[in-house]
Amino acid sequence: TGERAQFGKAIGVNQALKHHMADCAVKSEFAKAPLYRAAYTVSTRPEHADFAVSHAKVVAGEAALLAAKNSIQSHGAMGYTWECDLHIWMKRSWALDKFWGHAGFHKNRLHHWLLKPTAKIGADKTFGEQLSA
What we know:
With 133 residues, the protein is mainly α. The chain has one domain: Butyryl-CoA Dehydrogenase, subunit A, domain 3. It has five helices and two strands, in the order E-E-H-H-H-H-H. Strands 1-2 form a two-stranded antiparallel sheet. Helix 1 packs antiparallel against helix 2, helix 2 runs antiparallel to helix 3 and helix 2 crosses helix 4. The longest helix is centred in the first third of the chain and has 30 residues.
């Protein structure tokens, strides 16, 4: 967005666009820990990976969809043209959101696991039990 000009100045100087891009960066950064945790759990204890994988799927999908949506919004109609590849990333985000279970399925899975009567909730228990089980 720093190269494209609007009203005689670089589009990246607009504060609203900076906020959109900052939201994307934060969402993407927060998705890293669940992704790393899921990868670790799948490689070391695959029988206990269901919760970690669902968590990673939800946060990574949300980050990808937000980044694609905000990028197209920032570029305006140009984001949908063949001159700009943003539409490809949007379509990929939509497709990946449906693969290996829709986000709603994974959110429901997390909801049931976290709210079951035997679930131990707390900073040291919510995810620790899943890793040590």
